[in-house]
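Researcher: Here's a chain I'd like modeled. Treat it as a single chain, no partners, no ligands.
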Amino acid sequence: MAAAAAAAVGGPQPPQPELPAAGLALDKAATAAHLKAALSRPDNRAGAEELQALLERVLSAERPLAVAADGEEAAAGGGGPGAAEEEALEWCKCLLAGGGGYEEFCAAVRAYDPAALCGLVWTANFVAYRCRTCGISPCMSLCAECFHQGDHTGHDFNMFRSQAGGACDCGDSNVMRESGFCRRHQIKSSSNIPCVPKDLLMMSEFVLPRFIFCLIQYLREGYNEPAADVPSEKDLSKVLQLLEPQISFLEDLTKMGGAMRSVLTQVLTNQQNYKDLTSGLGENTCAKKSHEKYLIALKSSGLTYPEDKLVYGIQEPSAGTSTLAVQGFAGATGTLGQLDSSDEEDQDGSQGLGKRKRVKLSSSTKDQSIMDVLKHKSFLEELLFWTIKYEFPQKMVTFLLNMLPDQEYKVAFTKTFVQHYAFIMKTLKKSHESDTMSNRIVHISVQLFSNEELARQVTEECQLLDIMVTVLLYMMESCLIKSELQDEENSLHVVVNCGEALLKNNTYWPLVSDFINILSHQSVAKKFLEDHGLLVTWMNFVSFFQGMNLNKRELNEHVEFESQTYYAAFAAELEACAQPMWGLLSHCKVRETQEYTRNVVRYCLEALQDWFDAINFVDEPAPNQVTFHLPLHRYYAMFLSKAVKCQELDLDSVLPDQEMLMKLMIHPLQIQASLAEIHSNMWVRNGLQIKGQAMTYVQSHFCNSMIDPDIYLLQVCASRLDPDYFISSVFERFKVVDLLTMASQHQNTVLDAEHERSMLEGALTFLVILLSLRLHLGMSDDEILRAEMVAQLCMNDRTHSSLLDLIPENPNPKSGIIPGSYSFESVLSAVADFKAPVFEPGGSMQQGMYTPKAEVWDQEFDPVMVILRTVYRRDVQSAMDRYTAFLKQNGKFPGNPWPPYKKRTPLHPSYKGLMRLLHCKTLHIVLFTLLYKILMDHQNLSEHVLCMVLYLIELGLENSADEESDEEASVCGPERCHDSWFPGSNLVANMRHFINYVRVRVPETAPEVKRDSPASTSSDSLGSLQNSGTAQVFSLVAERRKKFQEIINRSSNEANQVVRPKTSSKWSAPGSAPQLTTAILEIKESILSLLIKLHHKLSGKQNSYYPPWLDDIEILIQPEIPKYSHGDGITAVERILLKAALQSRMNKRIIEEICRKVTPPVPPRKVTAAEKKTLDKEERRQKARERQQKLLAEFASRQKSFMETAMDVDSPENDIPMEITTAEPQVSEAVYDCVICGQSGPSSEDRPTGLVVLLQASSVLGQCRDNTEPKKLPITEEEQIYPWDTCAAVHDVRLSLLQRYFKDSSCLLAVSIGWEGGVYVQTCGHTLHIDCHKSYMESLRNDQVLQGFSVDKGEFTCPLCRQFANSVLPCYPGSNMENNLWQRPSNKSLQDLIKEVEELQGRPGAFPSETNLSKEMESVMKDIKNTTQKKYRDYSKTPGSPDNDFLFMYSVARTNLELELIHRGGNLCSGGASTAGKRSCLNQLFHVLALHMRLYSIDSEFNPWGKLTQLEEMNSQLGNEEQQPEVPILYHDVTSLLLIQILMMPQPLRKDHFTCIVKVLFALLYTQALVALSVKCNEEDRSAWKHTGALKKNTCDAEKSYKVLLSFVISELSKGKLYHEEGAQECAMVSPIAWSSESMEKYLQDFCLPFLRITSLLQHHLFGEDLPSCQEEEEFSVLSSCLGLLPTFYQTEHPFISASCLDWPVPAFDIIAQWCSEINSFTERHAEQGKALLIQESRWKLPHLLQLPENYNTIFQYYHRKTCSVCTKVPKDPAVCLVCGTFVCLKGLCCKQQSYCECVLHSQNCGAGTGIFLLVNASVIIIIRGHRFCLWGSVYLDAHGEEDRDLRRGKPLYICKERYKVLEQQWISHTFDHINKRWGPHYNGL
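Model: Modeled as a single isolated chain. Structure tokens:
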């Protein structure tokens, strides 16, 4: 509700403006109550008048309006209008409530709501649901609430984002089945709702008419006719803004429920009210003025207002009797032509033609009145008028729709909408915001027209169909142009111009969408199909699209501007012509509907005849032009198909005469030929767009409205026309007639030689498709679906959704054939297997795929269907490759197979004539000629041609008529037939017919001329008649053509004169053609003999064919032999010969005879030198190609193996040896290869080598938690995540606690940082010279290619393996020999070593002299520092103190060790060098860190080493009371101490020094463990242990017994206050379990293990020793012996005791006493904190991402409506952090801070620059890494294993555990940068 109204409801009343009447000063409530009482009396006239007067004053429209006529007034009004508006609303509310409170009144009205319907109205972008199982109308939709409260389990539903807005249909049984209603709307509750008391709504009935009238007056006042035809949108929106509260108020009234809606309906539809208030007849000047404005608005809209104020219904005498009088339309004179002058700004006068057409259309007054008469008789009608004028403001639309649950209103509103329909479309056409407006229009119309009952009613009462068709015509007429098809000069045909905005922007969409919607209702469609006038008009409309977007072939230069209008043309034909056609077809399914089909076919043929006349078409199509748009042909074809398939109509009864059929076939055939031309690159000068058209024509959404009807129509024509005529037309259209000669050379006058081969292939392929396709010739729907699916799956494995998309479905969504329907799923499971997605870490994200079953490849693979359905030619190849692979794999056929021949479903009897094509002489001559040419190796013939020829022969044998009975009679052989080539037309007989001589026309240069012709020529006698360049064969064709023309053309001579003189000069290059002479060839072959010779030729062996039936007579009995079903050409020939033998004994005999004559080898042709040259060239090219293929394959396999070794994150690289740490002893120095310059050598001071590394800040460690309970993503308000138990939080608390009580510098040595924002260093293991790297970076900087990284930030990719990196870590020059010497064990005692360590640490570490190496070390240190943010480096209280750097540096080492431990799974049980070992750069990193750490020498007195190894004199404690004490050594973190000690030593370190440091620190660690244990247990346990241990204190190995040590610790600490004050609150911390010695031992081991693991890793990296592998339970003992803590002679029989590893540097009890005393002095003051600091949690679990719910909907429903915490709005792109569960806005400007958007900011705070976010509205995960981001993919997949990005399909999604694991793995191993390839900069805008 608008804010103003809300504020006014309960708050104090605003001060009243001074209104003239004193009565108003009364309290509003009292006035209202008084009036209500007055009106309740039986005689309420006085009350009514009083109320009217009051309303007149309150709602007067004379207040200054923002858009007043004169500007000053508005300015003066200032805040006036707002306040007055508010006041008026206040009054209305009070009056409605009749003195009571408005809120109570609302509640009272709601109680009477018979809520049977939901009716919730939503606007664009709302998330709603659609359930196809429950929907009756396909537009059905439910709001989320109703959907989730209904039961839709197992239904076919999906969630969708509303495009245009909609309303919830729950409860409406016209639109959906009742079983799907939700719980609220299931009960038909109207029966038990009490009757509404009269007085409750009485006031409303009086007040609302006034209120609505006031609103209308505002709208009238506010509207100014836009000047100069540019609607002043600013002004309009200003008015609307002012009216916002009023409209909101109305909207709220509608939400009060049924009772209030019915009052509103009364008010809106009452004609008397409207008449009284608006007629403008009263003396009120204001009302007059507003009425005038209304009339002006009407007039300016090009509408007339019948001036009949006195009597309604008497029509103007000038009009004829209007059929639309029912609607209150009155007829009007005037033609559309006049109308144009006022309405069409975009008509240029020059288009006289368009005008002419228009005048013709407007001959009936009916059309006219539809377009420009409008008359309003109620508030509702005028409200809608203004809604349209103001271009459908959202608020008004919502109000009008909110009223729809009221049935009476629904009918009235629908009629009003229809009455304004023409006006709506006019406004839409002129609108500048046509997109928004379209959406709003459809938002309304879909609610009205989806209801069949309602649609039928308006069709009957308001001529809805007439209106729609007329408006459609009117709309398209504005953009007609002259058609240039065929006869450019004299064409009378007009087509739409696809370049116009109307088509380009799809402005016609709402209209067409409504039209399709109403045609989906049977009752409406029947009316349409019965109304002859409508059908004529409709065909007229369709003909506007016939031949649009004509393409003319560019012959000379490339077209300069490629127009992209073709998509508009395809969309227009699909939406405006095809979809209504499918809608109509869906009602022609049964016999009873035959009449409809006859009507459509009749008017369609008439329209086609008109079209042929208009374009002056006689018999030949114009050359070099093609249009893909023939909607009239397609209407005709589809209705024919339906008639035969469903209505049992006799085909011949709806076919026209032969002449018309010949015309009908021309244009579809032209398209097929043009497709071949386009694929042969003959249209290349027309640019890419022509390829686009060819692809769109066959593409899945268009094919069954485009290519399928075209081919069907050609099949119908072929089945009824003379076959010889048809075949010859095909070859002529494809321009390959000249090629079909026996001569080895020929001239083609219409085709370049380079295109001949592909055009011939095209022609033959077309014939094969034409003869084998059965889509409309007898296949059932399920068979069609299966064939389509098999074809798509054979091309490629497909996901479920892409399959749904690729299977052409009936494009009319309302046809009831729903994709994804039951049959779809059952067919899919029958033909395909589901391949679940596979996951390799680092592999690409795969989707679940369907792949064809083996038996499908075996029996159902149909190359013809594949060719028909491929958009890209490469898909055909892909299908063949997959087929080949299948055959190889199953051992069915080893070589390269040919496309298999597939048996077809039987033809429907009506189309039997189609098979005559296979049995006509013309085709046989073509086949014979081609076989001969292939055998003789003539040029331009390919394997593909042979394949198609054999396919056609086989088709002929399969479909032969059984006329073989008289075969024996015709033995007398070939001698008789001098008149023609073949005796009859049956292929079976013609196959054995021998042809001896043929006369051909050849160029003089041809080799044939040299031969002498034998005397007895039994050649074709017709040859002599021929005088063109066509070969002998086709003399026949010319003859037939002439005969046919004579039969058909009434004046044959005219017909032959119409030859086009305009042929382009390109073809007949004058001088070049050599003279033609006649030559006679001796052939002496039959088709059978040619086939047998071909078999020899293909197999490369003489006499390779041996008739199989001679060995096995069975073959003839059961011919279906599997061995012949797959194979190459040889198999095909064998199969054909076998079939031929089967069909006739004669053939069988002849085959045997031919095989008996041992065929002499085919005489080698005399090859001329020129030919030899071309042949050699070809051969050489072929060889070169093969070589190249081989090389490429080899290269690819090499690259692949390299990529596998280099890139796979989880497998050890065995192939890239890195001699950094693992060199053989005999090598003196480490040698590095530079991957840039390729030289090898050691790293030296002046030319250092470096490792390619990637430095990144990481907070993964900080996400470890100490309990195993997984954290879940919050999905309700209650679940929240608090990060206090993470590792990072615990460490932060500890550090700040230390800093509170101890000296800062000492605190910074007692802990490690880097749990959050620690720097992790990783390398790919490749090295390069640092100077080479600098020049490499320079070249990258100059390289302008868009890289996915930023060179200025130092980023690059490794030159060898392309792994992402951003720094180079210098390798410290050092020899390995030295290293080995250092590792020799020495026999020095521990005490000596301790001294040595101390001395070494004491030496100041001067920075080595300024060498290149030291400079690099410095710069890399700077890089490491800059990798993380300042807040993660500076923890000191004094900023910039050196202690800070010191802390940061050893923490970097710690971070890298800890992370490596996590990558190994948190322990070292697996041992080995592991993958990380080979690629680790820790050794180099240590050198760099050590070098810098030695610059900060710690004062010897502060060095913890002393405290660890020496006893102090007690007096030193006294001096420093005044300042803060140092951190007691027992509070130090031992691992940090280890790193400090080691990095303080000069490098390289000696092994025994290392062991010494470890031993000393282990003693401290063990003591800490004992102390923690003592604090953990309770008082009794403590005293018991104290006692038992004290007894053994003096035994020999007391220092190595934990019991003794524990008792000592307890007794020492008891001196302080540590164990005191154990109040009740303490008990909680104490674990209740009784400690046994086993559990204590385990506790101590667990406490020490993390330290041992890190230390072992460190030792492994520093000294290159392998880690031993072990069982989990023995990890402690194995690691301690590996570290040299266990004495070598230690026996392992009895249970292992951790204390045996201890080696005390000084007497244990003394040093422990000293350490404990420090604690005691602290706990004197702070016992609580003292205790907390002692119990350290050292057992962190591995880090994990949040656990996600199983079903995505759970996340979506909670988060997509969740409001942003900053601006409390619902964000447009909500996202959730998967590490910590924070809700953030992606790209949300509300949450921007200093130019950083919220996701980027969060990624810095939560992950130190790495963020993993789930985008709630898209189900996709996005990764932010520093300044780059990438889309990772989705971890939620649907039931078919597919992602649903952006939730477009809206199917239920389920978590894919494997994918989530992969994501988590990449996060933990920091490999996002390496694995994901598509990164882009985000400029902080996410």
